[in-house]
Amino acid sequence: MVLDPGGATPGSLRKHNSALLMALIAGGTPVSRVDLARRTGLTKATVSSLVGELVDAGLVRDLGTEAGGAPGRPAGRLALDPYGPVGIGLQLATDHIAGCLMDLSGRVHARELRQVSAGLRPEQTVRAARPLLRRLFDHATTAGQLAAGVAVTIGGTISRDDDGYRSVAWAPELDWRSVDVLSLVAAELRALDLHGIDLSLDGEVAYAALAERRANPGPQWTNGYYVGGEAMIGAALLDGQGVERSAGLLGHLPVRGQGPRCACGGQGCLELYAGRNAMATAAGLPDPGPSRLLGRHPAEVPARVLETAADALAEAVISARLLINPATIFLGGRLAALGEPFRARVADRLDGNPHGTLDPIPVRLGRLGPDAALRGAAGTVAATVIADPLTWIDG
Ligand SMILES: [Zn+2]
Predict the structure, then answer these.
(1) Helix (H, G, I), strand (E, B) or coil at 267
(2) Closest CA to 81 of 107, 47, 49, 110
């Protein structure tokens, strides 16, 4: 048997070609089999065979022949099947739990929100997610949809062991350290008699950045530095493929050397000036309110509080710039909700920085609002199926 120089086997070619076709079908505009053959260089017979598998597996839907098509030559347009597999996002926050169910095209079919009391232990928080998970899985079952996986997100840093298994390293607002949250979620799924569900985990800033990028793709994201979060401030760096290379807790970067002590043990952390609690206190608000259950209008934040926060954030971003030289800064999550005055102040401070040799850097606002992390989590499950449809079909 002659192997081709790339070492491709029939199995790996089928996997590669299916992924290629799936990516084109997922591109947004319905495409025909003829288009797919032309754009991939595959034969029409190969395209028809592979598309047949994707249709049979419920990943792709044939929308039928376009009016005016040549008679006798079926040229049905193909799109992602809205009743195909769904991804479930689960966000565990200090004061609430949120979940959503998203199809392959990124449409949210169901969204659930549950308020929880602060200060719960990890197993109590995850236990509180059980009814919410039940409703999301019931919703999928009723619609005839299979869940391709659950992606869990928290505000904090994630660690990976040698096998790539992920757990929560530090979630300052939840006060979690070294928590194997996926095992806790797996136990809840078993209690619901749900087995064999793929689980994944990432920080809410990383997922939010990916969601913003999927919603508004373009070259601006390459080497983009996304600063966001709801209860905390974190950051993620995006590469050309849209996968974050690093995510950290920017909120605990010291920006004022002689500043007050932070709960983390540090001094003068960014959180003390631009954090949710710090800004509420500085604005004279009794408490910041649950992050997304009771949104607060940015107009309630006095200009001086906004400016102090923006100046501190710019200091932190300047440090990040010197380390990693990002091409664009994105402000997402709660920081995006502070609006254009906040963005403009950060951009102005970055341009007027003491390291005057640095070029001006664009500062943009995220658009997805407080659901960005949740959407990013669910969308990552869907993206995994699109990137490798055969593993889903054969699995
Ligand atoms: Zn701190």
Answers:
(1) strand
(2) 107
Taking only the tens place, the pLDDT of each residue in 243-294 is: 666 667 899 999 998 899 998 899 999 999 999 889 988 988 877 665 554 4
- Element containing residue 45 per DSSP (H, E): helix 44-56
How is residue 304 written in tokens? 């001086």
Using the mean position of ligand 1's atoms as its centre, give its distance from the Cα of residue 275 in Å: 10
How far is ligand 1, taken at its centre, from the CA of residue 270, in Å? Answer: 7
pTM above threshold 0.85: yes
Q: Reduce the DSSP state of residue 291 to 3 states and report it.
A: coil
Name the residue type at position 293.
Answer: L
Determine the distance separating the centroid of ligand 1 and the alpha carbon of 208, expressed in angstroms: 22
Residue pLDDT, tens place only, 13-62: 999 999 999 999 998 789 999 999 999 999 999 999 999 999 999 999 99
- How do residues 335-388 score in pLDDT, each as one tens digit? 998 899 999 999 999 887 666 566 788 999 999 988 999 999 999 999 999 999
Rounded to the nearest whole angstrom, what is the distance from the C-alpha of residue 230 to the centroid of ligand 1? 16
Which residues in 177-196 are b (16+ Cβ under 10 Å) and which e?
A: eebebbebbbebbeeeeeee
The residues with which 225 forms a beta bridge, in sequence order, are: 237, 329
DSSP 166-232: EEEEEETTTTEEEE-HHHHHHHHHHHTT--S--EEEEEHHHHHHHHHHHHS-SGGGTTEEEEE-SSS
d(Cα 144, Cα 270) in Å, to the nearest integer? 47
Q: Which two tokens stand for residue 215?
A: 């919603």
Cα 280 to averaged position of ligand 1 atoms, centre (Å): 17
> How far is it, in rounded angstroms, from Cα 310 to Cα 8?
53
Element at 156 (helix H, strand E): none
CA of 313 to the centre of ligand 1 (A): 14
Q: How far is the CA of 262 from the centre of ligand 1 (A)?
A: 5
152: its two tokens: 């869990």
Query: DSSP characters for 268-285?
Result: SBTHHHHSHHHHHHHTT-
Distance 197 CA to ligand 1 centre (A): 36
3-class DSSP assignment, residue 356: coil
